[in-house]
Every structure is written in structure tokens, then in C-alpha cells.
Amino acid sequence: MLTDEDRAGRLANLTELIDLIRPAVQSDGGDLVLLSADVESGMIEVQLQGSCSSCAVSSTTLQAGVERILKERLDWVTEVLGSLDEDIDWETSASMGRGGYTPAW
Q: What is the spatial distance between Cα 64 and Cα 9, in angstroms, rounded to a whole number?
């Protein structure tokens, strides 16, 4: 069982790592947001926003990029769940960056 100090340390390390990844995502007109983190079980949930919502490689960004980095650098991370911000329409999303739009239908 983790102490409050251990939990706070894990969350701080996770937040710092997300902040290191975000500029790469933002350079393409998107963003990466931490939605939830269970620092005991190692389950992390993130969301891609902005132009990433319509990008054809967003799942690759989540799996080969975000998930890989988090698991490599934080040994307690066991699973990374990712989603896309679907509140933004595809035209607005596509106009924000260089990603290739792939219709969801």
C-alpha cells in the first residue's frame, strides 16, 4: 500500500512527464490532457484534443507515443487508456493542424 507521499510523488512525476510530451502534440495543433490517474493500480487515462481529434494517426500517437513513453519512464504505469475529444467538429479539428482526417462513419 502506498503512502500519501508516494501517491503524491507518482502523480507529480506523471504530470511532469505529460507536460514534457504535450509540446510535441501541440506543435501539430493538438493537445494532450490527463483525465485520470490511479497511481495505485497504474491505470492512466488521457485524451487527445484539437487537431488530434481528426488525425488519422491519433491512435498511433496514443499507443506508440504516449503509452510507450509513460510505461518506459514510470515503472508503475500498467495501462494507458486514450480517447479523442469528440466535442469538436471534424472541419474545425482538421483546420487546426497537419493531421490527416479520417471520417468516423
A: 25
Q: pLDDT value at position 14?
A: 98
**Distance, CA of 9 to CA of 94 (rounded, Å):** 37
The pLDDT assigned to 77 comes to 97
Q: Which domains does the chain have, with CATH numbers?
A: 4-89 (3.30.300.130)
What b/e sequence results for 23-61 when a residue is b if at least 16 CB atoms lie within 10 Å of its CB, and e otherwise? Answer: eebbebbbbbebeebebeebebebbbbbbbbbbeebeeb
**Cell numbers of 30, please?**
493538438
